[in-house]
Amino acid sequence: MIGARRARGARLRSELRYVATRLFVGAVVRGYVRLRVSGLDRLPSGACVLCFNHQSWTDPFVLLAVLPWWPRLYIFGPREADMTRGWRNRLMAWTGTPVPYRPAGDDLRGAARRAQAVLESGGILAIAGEGRIHAGEAELLPLSEGAAFFALRAGVPLVPCAINGTSWLAFGRRIRVRAGPPIEVSGRPTQAAVRELTERLWTELHELCQGYPDPAPPGWFGRWLTEAFNDWPEGARPDVRRVTTATDAGSPIRRES
């Protein structure tokens, strides 16, 4: 009896933290930028995997600001060995939205179990399919196969979602969020099925990203805010003119090492 009450209390606290997070993030995002959102009426009423492109550390917060409150939204990541260390990790864990995974290869099964649990609960699992931020608003790097694998494993739709305008965060500028039609899935998550679904996902997400120009850098505050938490694999923001598209790179699929 005591255990049941504690469990109900823990669930209630989790829901309250989620509501507080959505209210706060929504107010901050909408107070700083202008949002143009389309396609959200296409979202399934139940569980799904949502795959988005990745321009900035703010992309998950944009999703928290614009997506429907229910089904509950979860963000796959970050790659952290211990979410109890560091104020950012503790804050993210407090919100209850991340589905973290350890960078060691032995956590792949654990990450798959956590993702499956989210989808079985009826939630939305959002994944930055490129696995890293990049420059070039209309560009899309090769996607990892995780989104397709999770969708096939759980038997839930896969939704492409493009976020454009976050490459530079200037006050009052427009950010565009476009959700594409859900991709219905069926069958087992075989290697061939996962690869085929990932290729289709890349094509549809790339199409959603098209037509958005690269914005000019803002003033000093906007530049600072943009780069405050960006983690560039190159060590610094690359020149957008040198970005190579995924098509030029030869494959829309990124293999995990």
Q: Roughly what fraction of the amino acids lie in strands? A: 15-25%
Q: How many E strands?
A: 7
Mean pLDDT: 88
SSE sequence, one letter per element: HEEHEHEHEHEEHHH
Please report the number of helical segments: 8
Distance between the termini: 47 Å
Oligomer: single chain
Largest β-sheet summary: 7 strands, mixed
Strand order in space, largest sheet: 1-7-6-2-5-3-4
Shape: globular
Low-confidence stretches: 244-249
Which structural category do the helix and sheet elements fall into?
alpha/beta
Helix content: 25-40%
Q: Nearest-angstrom radius of gyration? A: 18 Å
3D architecture notes:
The chain is α/β, with parallel strands linked by helices and 257 residues long. The chain has a domain at 34-74 and 104-229. It is 39% helix and 15% strand. It has eight helices and seven strands, in the order αββαβαβαβαββααα. A seven-stranded mixed β-sheet has the order 1-7-6-2-5-3-4, sandwiched between helices. α5 (146-154) crosses α6 (191-209). The longest helix has 31 residues, at 2-32. The chain is globular and about 60 Å long. The protein starts with a helix and ends in an 8-residue tail after the last helix.
